[in-house]
Design a protein that fits this description.
CATH superfamily: STAS domain
CATH architecture: 2-Layer Sandwich
Number of helices: 4
Number of strands: 5
Number of domains: 1
Shape: globular
Strand order of the largest sheet: 1-2-3-4-5
Radius of gyration: 13 Å
CATH class: Alpha Beta
Structural class: alpha/beta
């Protein structure tokens, strides 16, 4: 597991904080680490906080990330992804791509809204 990733059990959900590069290879490694941690510890609801990461992804990289995330069988994890405004895309492209591949994800720039979504069963 990368040293720039921390996990914290918050009772109702797992909080994953990532402060590394916001780039394809590192984010795919993060997805693998997160999947492994959730499988080992039985977490099903995760808040992934990327606000301290640096960089942006192109549309093609967002697509490649979504495709890369489903190379392993899904765990049934519900994931709210918290990003800065400059990392979010209004068209929710990444969110749509991951959902089309069977993952339950939600991208938000608002921590309160992300946690509210995570607490529901709303798709």
């Amino acid at each position: 597991m990368a040293s720039n990733v921390t996990f914290e059990d918050r009772g109702t959900h797992l909080r994953c904080h990532y402060a590394g590069p916001f780039e394809l290879r590192s984010l795919l490694e993060l997805a693998h680490d997160l999947r492994s941690y959730c499988a080992e510890h039985g977490h099903r609801r995760v808040l992934v906080d990327l606000r301290d990461s640096q960089g942006t992804l192109t549309t093609l990289e967002r697509y490649e990330h979504a495709v890369g995330m489903v190379k392993e069988p899904p765990l049934g994890v519900r994931a709210a992804v918290l990003v800065r405004l400059d990392q979010a895309y209004a068209d929710r492209f990444w969110e749509t791509m991951t959902r089309n591949r069977g993952l339950v994800t939600h991208v938000s720039t608002d921590p309160t809204e992300a946690l509210a979504w995570l607490a529901t069963d709303e798709i």
